[in-house]
Design brief:
Radius of gyration: 31 Å
Strand content: 25-35%
Distance between the termini: 74 Å
Low-confidence stretches: none
Mean pLDDT: 87
Number of helices: 2
Order of helices and strands: HHEEEEEEEE
CATH superfamily of one domain: Immunoglobulins
CATH architecture of one domain: Sandwich
Length: 163
């Protein structure tokens, strides 16, 4: 005995998987996929402009020159460290062959990585012992900083990603 009280007849349609169920599953699945794709596309296009250089062909022609300049800068033997102070100023430490450089001119071009803030140029003043501090403060957040140190007719360039 099966224990059924309906005379052995199952209710018509109870517990059956129909075409409507499959249609609902497909519509739900593809609706979720499309919603996620649209969300990701919107986020991607709003946070990255897609342009790394103005003209990639011109950049490729200059690449070997950039490598040579980097080798020349390495041969200087200068070390440059950049940090943010608690007061939101930039602190640059510059050394040449383990001795502090006190007569350098330091400048920095500061850019927001997503272009959400205008570029700004920062000047630095010597505060002793090969340390230079920015004249103005830098707002909190992530910044890409192009630092240029000039001394004795020579130049060192560094790009620092500061969080």
């Amino acid at each position: 005995m099966t224990g059924r009280h309906d005379g052995g007849q199952a209710h018509k349609g109870a517990g059956r998987f129909t075409g409507r169920h499959m249609a609902a599953i497909l519509v739900t699945f593809f609706g979720i996929v499309i919603a996620v794709n649209l969300t990701m596309a919107r986020l991607a296009s709003s946070t990255f402009g897609g342009k790394v250089v103005e003209n990639s062909y011109v950049a490729s022609q200059k690449f070997n020159g950039w490598l040579e300049k980097a080798r020349e800068e390495e041969a200087l033997g200068w070390t440059l460290d950049l940090a943010r102070t608690p007061g939101q100023r930039l602190d640059v430490t510059l050394h040449e062959a383990a001795s502090a450089m006190t007569d350098a001119r330091i400048t920095a071009l500061v850019r927001h990585p997503l272009g959400r803030a205008p570029e700004r140029t920062m000047q630095f003043r010597h505060i002793g012992g090969g340390r230079y501090q920015s004249v103005g403060a830098l707002p909190a957040g992530r910044w890409i900083i192009h630092v240029r140190a000039q001394a004795h007719g020579r130049e060192l360039n560094r790009i620092v990603d500061l969080s």
